[in-house]
Amino acid sequence: MQLLTFLLLYPIIWLISKLPFRVLYFTSDLVYILVYYLIGYRKKIVRQNIASALPHLTQKERIVIEKKSYRHLCDMFLEMMKTMSLSEEEMDKRFTFTNIEALIEMEKQGKSIAVMMAHYASYEWAISLNKYSNLTSYAIYKRVGNTYFDKMVKDIRLKFKALLITTRETIPTIEKNHLEKRLGLYGFASDQSPQLSKTHHWGTFLGIETPIHTGAEMLVKRFDMNVIFLKVKKVKRGYYEATLETMFDHPSEVPNYQISEEFLRRVEKQIYEAPEYYLWTHKRWKHKKK
């Protein structure tokens, strides 16, 4: 069944990846109508999340953000498919970095680097950072249920010098690289809700008490990695700009949970500046503290 699903959907994905950008975004507009108005994909969750996170806005203002977030979600979904056929030159034009020298300077310290970022703007195209790094790059992800699509996703990332490792593979991979003195560039998206059984710290995110992912902090402390925050901004449709913000270069000296808290404060700042580019479809506040 997995193979049949892959054989049926792969040609569609491939064809979408070959569309000129003007046609791609026209297609995205049609997908938006289908997803938002006809299917109403996770609309209840999105509406509740925005209302909880942005209570100071009127209902009319929140609906505007809601619709814009769905438009962006559809754009990003098709941009993910476009990555399959996207050239390196086109990627460089559409996803730019304002201060790549910050990464180069940090690499001179001879330590592995943890890049922390949110599910905001284009977190998929952030893989283009890898071409500027001299370190082996790893993106931590959740394995796709269909093994054929999982391999396809890995192959696309490999095209941009990124190796995908699952959450279960993360600690063994970093530990092995550390023992063999191989430096790595590790990408963490730690803004979503952790499993309650694996929660070690509660804090606030957008003013709401919630369990916080501390896995990235634990690893940077254990393996003494420098920490960078990747702030991504959507300039216009199909164009993004990223800035590398140095967070910590001596993580072992930082009090417990401060790295995780500082990361969320920076994510909050992004969201408050332009909330329509955040991934609101995730159940971020599904757990309540007893």
Describe this structure as you would to a colleague:
- The structure is a single chain.
- With 290 residues, the protein is of the alpha/beta class.
- It is 46% helix and 19% strand.
- The strands form 2 sheets. The protein has a 7-stranded mixed β-sheet. A two-stranded antiparallel sheet has the order 6-7.
- Strand 6 (202-205) and strand 7 (208-211) form a beta hairpin.
- Helix 1 (2-17) crosses helix 4, helix 2 packs across helix 4 and helix 3 (43-53) packs across helix 4.
- The relative contact order is 0.16.
- The model has no long low-confidence stretch (mean pLDDT 92).
Write the layout of secondary structure elements.
Elements: H1 2-17, H2 21-39, H3 43-53, H4 59-82, H5 88-94, E1 95-97, H6 101-107, E2 113-117, E3 136-141, H7 147-159, E4 162-166, H8 167-179, E5 184-189, E6 202-205, E7 208-211, H9 215-222, E8 226-236, E9 239-248, H10 258-273
Helix pairs in contact: 1-4, 2-4, 3-4
